[in-house]
Amino acid sequence: MKKKTIIIGSSAVAGAIVIGIGIWAIWGRNKASDSDNVVYVNSVESIMNPGSGNGAINRFAGVVETQEKLDIQVSQDKTVKEVFVEEGQEVEVGTPLFEYDTEKTEEELSKAKLDLERISNTIGNKYNEIAALEKEKKSADQESKLDYTMQIQSAQMELKQSEYEKKSKQVEIQKLQDTLENAQVESEMAGVVKSINDGSSGMEYQGDSQAFMTIIAMGDYRIKGKINEQNMGSVIQGQPVLVHSRVDEDVTWKGTMGEIDMQNPGNDSNNYYMSGDATTQSNSYPFYVNLDSSEGLMLGQHVYIEVDYGQEEKKAGIWLDESFICDVDSDPYVWVDNGKGKLEQRKVTLGQHDEEMFQYEIADGLTEEDLITYPEEGLKEGMTTAKGENGQMGQSNPEPMSDGSLEGEMLPEGEALPEENMMENEVLTEDEGMMSEEPLPEGQDGAEEIIGGTEDAE
Q: Dmax over Cα atoms in the chain, in whole Å?
């Protein structure tokens, strides 16, 4: 009996162990899944102020340039003898810029004048010849008159040919004389010599044109940016824009978006996008911003360009886009980090509603320091949070939705995002001067830091 009791006891222990292992496996798997799925959050302050880095408003790199410039070309049949100015030098209207070599022109002019003298002599001789033939014809018998008539007609044709040659030679001489008189080229506008392509550096001119010399006007500035084929829909002609200083974020200029220069595409070796099953290189195009005022800007200064949604005129208090607020009409709340690295629902009190900006004032429940995320399917209280880089928000490893797809899932290799989504989660790279996707360093998951700690630490 004792032995039987021991056997039953052993079976119970074994069963308990099996059940325990099963519970541990389920709990451990769920815990592992939960720990893999991090919810990225960002501060209310950064969301309200796109310039602080949340990426809510697209920005483009730009550079200050002049609206008016003068490109001076060198005649292909001429050689520059001397340049009188240098790059960066200020010039006025009439300032000598360079001089052509006139030695060859002077030789051609001397030869042309000799040719003209010879032609003039030929014409004089022909007139005398025709006069003599006509005189002889009058005293000639009837049979000889026909022969004289033919000689006179032939001489008249030669005379006309010589007169034509004389006119052509006179035009040639005038051009050569003009070349000598205009051998010294002067500036037709006041400004600064931007570039000189005289070949002295042994390098090809790297500017926007192949002009021998370029002069730019001073003070009348505009902003030049670049955009690629994937995000050119962000540039709408006539749209108001803000131009930010790269040195001081609070220093801005206002302007209007100009046209995209589709006639001058530039292929950017660093600009690629996925198309079907291949990687395609995208062209970039310059676009321009016309400024309301250029006071304080310097030629060549690098700036940031963004569409003006009225973000510069900050409203008092906390204002959030409608998309952040759940149950607006009944019991409004937002998804917030609880300060311990965990997600929670927090009720908020709504104030005014800005119908034009699609924003609500948060009268109570949030501070600018609170970290929030976009509402999306699968969010649960208690999920681990992390501060996102470049405005990243949402789940890192979302659960499948009801239709079997994943919220924010990664595309299979070789597939492309729909065009309407190409602008999401894109950041500015300064050396490209346009919007493009920026890969994370190897080993990073897109979060700057885990807020709070791990579940074990908790």
A: 173
Nearest Cα neighbor of 357 from 395, 392, 303, 307 is 307
Judged by DSSP in three states, 131 sits in helix
Amino acid in the structure at residue 308: D
- Euclidean distance between CA atoms 315 and 433, whole angstroms: 31
Residues of the chain short of pLDDT 70, as ranges, are 1-35, 50-57, 199-209, 266-282, 310-314, 400-458
d(CA 54, CA 38): 18
Looking at residue 429, its pLDDT comes to: 40
Query: Nearest-5° angle of CA 373, CA 377, CA 381?
Result: 60
Q: If we measure between CA atoms, which residue out of 103, 119, 231, 236 comes closest to residue 179?
A: 103
Residues in the chain: 458
So what's the pLDDT on residue 7? 34
Rg (C-alpha) for the chain, rounded Å, is 41
Query: CA 16, CA 144: separation in Å to the nearest integer?
Result: 147
Q: Which long-range contacts (CB under 8 A, 24 or more apart) does 125-132 make?
A: 126/155, 126/158, 126/159, 126/162, 127/159, 129/155, 130/155, 130/156, 130/159
Q: What is the C-alpha separation between 404 and 397, in angstroms, rounded?
A: 14
Q: Which residue has the tokens 């370029």?
A: 214
3-state DSSP assignment of residue 345: strand
Kindly list the strands in the beta sheet with 80-83, ordered across the sheet, starting from the edge strand earlier in the chain: 80-83, 96-100, 184-186
3-state secondary structure of 236: coil
pTM of the complete model beyond 0.90: no
The helix (H) or strand (E) run that includes residue 367 is none
pLDDT for 295 equals 85
pLDDT of residue 314: 64
Query: Strand pairing of 385-388 and 39-43?
Result: parallel
Residue 301 amino acid letter: Q
CA atoms within 13 A of residue 279's CA, in its CB half-sphere:
5
Is the CB of residue 218 less than 8 Å from the CB of residue 192?
yes
The 3-state DSSP class for residue 128 equals: helix
